[in-house]
Amino acid sequence: MEKEKEVKIRIRDLHKSFGKKCVLDGVNLDLYKGESLVVIGGSGTGKSVLIKCIQGLLIPDSGSIEIDDIEIVNENPDVIDRMHSKMGMLFQGGALFDSLTVWENVAFDLIQNRGFNKKEAKIVAIKVLRQVGLTEDIADLYPSELSGGMQKRVGLARAVITRPEIIFFDEPTTGLDPIMADVINDLIIESAKDLGATTLTITHDMASARKIADKIAMLYQGKIIWYGTVKDLDKTTNPYVRQFINGSSKGPIKVEK
Question: Among residues 55, 123, 223, 227, which one has the fewest Cβ atoms lying within 10 Å of its Cβ?
Answer without folding.
Answer: 123
